[in-house]
């Protein structure tokens, strides 16, 4: 049965997160509703690279699903976008290998976090960036980022609710750049724990405002205690930017 | 009784337009609700430079109201912003002359219209710019704009529902610029009729795509017939950008 891979973008504002929940509007729910329409009422289960929380956005979420419909990727693209609501957009559609898995084959992810550098609320950014009015010491944040890079147990940087036992992850890149009044953090890693990016941002902001020492990250990691890290930054500044797969995994079956 | 002038910004997405309507969420309604709270339950009527339609945004709408409260402008600013919902923001507050009127004293307005130049929907821009996928001939649009500049009867460019009898207005500037994937139209004039900017945009887009001659604007104005102009462009691309007042009118009473 053909397996289809899609890269999708969504504005997380109107969703109770990615994952299906009874009675709630979710990204997965809307995707499965559109596919069910195309499939004449037969339900199709969609798998994603991972969940996103309520209010969190995606610029490059990856999903897959199986179908018996004999439709070319280009036509899937058009059909899905015509059936999906305005706040979800399918960026690309590919025919995948039959054993491709959006989640298990992912070898890395990139997240970005947008701060609106302003003393004032901006009604147009209220759902798309975290308004932050304090001066930030970029050197201090860069120093702290360096200590966070690499392979560590990130227990201190994940929600206490995390059920995953293995909390060792590799952070490959952390940087930030200013653009049009925003400060944008980039995080690339092999995988991220629940709330990990938002806690990393919250902690780096404490470093940037001088409330936490730039060279205290290794100790914080070693402590393996969530209560010692910074606040969880708000979800509406966060974007799942890209999901990485090995070339071989992606090679399309023809 | 002190008269207060405020410049405000709002995301029009969540409003049924500016003006109060029973049972609908409107900008004026939210402003008056906030003022009523400050005024311990006594209602205060707010006057604006003009209405905006459902979905239309503002970056520099001007309003005024009278108050018996003895509060400094800086404190009004903070208090109002703390009481207003996230999609309205007060940019500035001034003590006005007692006879200042946001609407009748306005000597001009600037509107901007945002086109998202893209073949694809962008979930993040769906409420903030009109997605437009066709090539536009800028020279043709510039020629047409020149014919529209100046003082004309704009009957062809206002909604047939317009009840105003005098449809003579002066367009002082029309131009457009590209920025970050958007084409932004700027319109400055002494006043604008109902739907006038959106019909101007719709007509210029027909010129830009070659469906209407660039030198046909004077004839179109002369015909004074709305049915001969272009379509009304969608409201969600439109921003009330600035309202102009004479310096003398603005001089603050101390």
UniProtKB/TrEMBL annotation, chains A, B:
Q: Which keywords accompany this UniProt record? A: Isomerase, Lyase, tRNA processing
Active-site annotation: 53 (nucleophile)
Annotated Pseudouridine synthase I TruA alpha/beta domain residues: 9-105, 144-246
Q: Cross-referenced SUPFAM superfamilies, in alphabetical order? A: Pseudouridine synthase
Record keywords: Lyase included?
yes
Where does the chain cross the membrane?
none
A biological process term (GO) from this entry: tRNA pseudouridine synthesis
Report the EC number(s), separated by commas if there are several.
5.4.99.12
Q: Which InterPro entries match?
A: PsdUridine_synth_cat_dom_sf, PsdUridine_synth_TruA, PsdUridine_synth_TruA_a/b_dom, PsdUridine_synth_TruA_C, TruA/RsuA/RluB/E/F_N
Q: Does the keyword Mitochondrion apply?
A: no
Q: Which GO terms describe its molecular function?
A: lyase activity; RNA binding; tRNA pseudouridine(38-40) synthase activity
Instruction: Detail which positions bind substrate.
Output: 111
Q: Which reaction does it catalyse?
A: uridine(38/39/40) in tRNA = pseudouridine(38/39/40) in tRNA
EC primary class:
isomerase
Q: How does it assemble?
A: Homodimer.
Cite the HAMAP family for this sequence.
TruA
| Family named by the database record | Belongs to the tRNA pseudouridine synthase TruA family.
* Role noted for this protein: Formation of pseudouridine at positions 38, 39 and 40 in the anticodon stem and loop of transfer RNAs.
What name does UniProt use for this protein? tRNA pseudouridine synthase A
Q: Which organism is it from?
A: Mesobacillus selenatarsenatis (strain DSM 18680 / JCM 14380 / FERM P-15431 / SF-1)
Q: Show the taxonomic lineage.
A: Bacteria, Bacillati, Bacillota, Bacilli, Bacillales
Gene name? Answer: truA
């Amino acid at each position: 049965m053909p397996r289809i891979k899609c890269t999708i973008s969504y504005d997380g504002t109107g969703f109770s997160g990615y994952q299906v929940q009874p009675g709630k509007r979710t990204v997965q729910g809307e995707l499965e509703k559109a596919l069910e329409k195309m499939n004449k009422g037969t339900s199709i289960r969609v798998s994603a690279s991972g969940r996103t929380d309520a209010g969190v956005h995606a610029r490059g979420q990856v999903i897959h699903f199986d179908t018996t419909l004999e439709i070319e990727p280009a036509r899937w693209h058009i059909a899905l976008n015509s059936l999906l609501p305005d706040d979800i957009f399918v960026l690309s559609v590919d025919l995948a290998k039959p054993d491709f898995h959006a989640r298990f084959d992912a070898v890395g992810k990139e997240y970005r976090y947008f701060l609106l550098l302003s003393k004032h609320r901006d009604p147009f950014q209220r759902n798309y960036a975290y308004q932050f009015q304090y001066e930030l010491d970029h050197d201090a944040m860069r120093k702290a980022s360096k200590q966070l890079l690499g392979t560590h147990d990130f227990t201190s940087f994940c929600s206490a609710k995390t059920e995953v036992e293995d909390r060792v992850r590799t952070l490959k890149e952390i940087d930030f750049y200013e653009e049009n009044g925003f400060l944008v953090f980039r995080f690339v890693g092999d995988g991220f724990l629940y709330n990990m990016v938002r806690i990393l941002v919250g902690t780096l902001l404490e470093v940037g405002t001088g409330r936490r020492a730039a060279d205290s990250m290794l100790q914080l990691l070693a402590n393996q205690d969530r209560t010692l890290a910074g606040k969880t930054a708000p979800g509406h500044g966060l974007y799942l930017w890209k999901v990485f797969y090995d070339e071989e995994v992606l090679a399309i079956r023809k």
